[in-house]
Known about the structure:
The chain is α/β, with parallel strands linked by helices. Helix content is 30%, strand content 26%. It has a 5-stranded mixed sheet with strand order 5-4-3-1-6, covered by helices on one side. The chain has a 5-stranded mixed sheet with strand order 12-10-9-7-14, covered by helices on one side. Helix 3 crosses helix 4 (139-158) and helix 5 (226-237) packs across helix 6 (262-279).
Amino acid sequence: xxxxxxxxxxxxxxxxxxxxxxADTAALFVGASSAPVNPPVGTWLAGYDLNRAxxxxxxxxxxxxxxxxxxxxxxxxxxxxxVSIQYDTTCEIRAAAANLIKDTLLPQRHxxxxxxxxxxxxxxxxxxxxxxxxxxxxxxxxxxxIAVAAEQVAKxxxxxxxxxxxxxxxxxxxxxxxxxxxxxxxxxxxVLQFLDESGKSIATLTNFACHPTVLDGDNTLTSxxxxxxxxxxxxxxxPGEHLFLQGAIGCWMQPETPERTFELAHKYGEDLAAKTxxxxxxxxxxxxxxxxxxxxxFNMPITNRNFQQMSLAGLVPRDxxxxxxxxxxxxxxxxxxxxxHLGETAPVFAEQTRALMDSEPKFILxxxxxxxxxxxxxxxxxxxxxxxHAKYLVSMSPCPQAGPVMIEALKSIIP
Length: 415
């Protein structure tokens, strides 16, 4: 509490002494924190077949948080090594974090939660239990995940210190491919780094689009997949926290998998880290660091009977009868802009979202705030034979208009 008092006092002094700076560029304060969220042995794993129980931990699943403020407002970003964070879980993490922080600079609606989508993590949806009639979502594990994620937001807020920001962009080619439309590949890598007054990294955010699915359904060890090796390689070279921000991976950004081994996952993670580290040797400073946030809660239509049956069977805690409540969010740190996508979105929706943002760098937060399955282009529903895997993809999509509905929500909040 004393540290929080000192932090608020420092902000007050800075804003009082430098009104021009506060009005035009704003002071920047950043804090970060992380902790493991590993499940106990026997927890049902998600992403592949039913009846797949964990037998141990290969590498830590983590909840990582960064809180970014300008003295007037703040935004929190939480990244969890999980197959999915549903909107109900996002709301619970927000509420739990707000109870810990009790700071009006970071209202709970300003906390954005994102999953990396590893398929070697617990079932946080409910549809991957021992059989089709049994929920695979562990209440005990969900309680732990929510508590740990909220604690990281609170710790990140407590750790906030004066900072500056730089960014870079590069590409990571060679192993992330589009299995549905091979010609439509987004290999871009966008990085935002926050440095303390001595130039030491507080947190590095890396945005890239590819499923963490080198490991297949035969694996029963919990793992962040290739994201684990990315974190390990980054941490070996740069201090501070590292957050991998998943991009638009639907329809269907996947790693090439000539083998389904931890060795291959490690190779891919190391490759992304090497390209990210090289890009950080030539960074661009953010001259404006004002923090802005906007969000919109709306209803997504549900016409997919598979979704409706999940609710009727009691596998999921949400009502997918005709529509479901969800949310889209946008926030900015100066010219750096972030927009959430409420599932595994096709690359075309990343292009459309970037077109709405008028400054660089631009970040697409796939599976951000919610995960409503695959968000496919409407023509995937009309021409299922034209696109590889389209029949499966649309079978796990809420409705043909999900993408356009999401884009309209983003249009209403992106200035």
